[in-house]
Design brief:
Number of strands: 3
Number of helices: 5
Shape: flat
Order of helices and strands: HEEEHHHH
């Protein structure tokens, strides 16, 4: 599997156009007015970003939906029928990063 991955990377590098790799980007971006939700899969679950723009350089609203926050919402269902003493083991099985759920 690793050798196959190396072959894929080599093929991608061969198809990369010649020229500078680093692009000059402006320090601030002005997204067009509107809203956008983008999600991607991470090892712990779905990670989502929600952006609402009024056309200015500062977003009107920006929210991050972490996988840990979503997984934590199922904790009450997972705890049914168990003792409070079991909470640490159950919480550990979900692999929650507490820094992600601090809102």
């Amino acid at each position: 599997e690793m050798l196959e991955s190396v072959k894929i990377v080599e093929q991608a590098l061969d198809q990369l156009p010649a020229g500078d790799v680093m692009a000059k980007m402006p320090k601030t971006l002005k997204p067009p007015p509107g809203q956008l939700y983008v999600r991607t899969e991470t090892p712990r679950g779905e990670l989502g970003f929600y952006l609402v723009s009024d056309g200015s350089p500062k977003p009107y609203r920006y929210k991050v939906r972490s996988p840990a926050f979503c997984n934590l919402s199922a904790l009450s269902e997972m705890m049914k029928g168990y003792l409070v003493a079991d909470a640490v083991a159950i919480l550990g099985s979900v692999d929650i990063v507490l820094g992600e759920i601090d809102r």
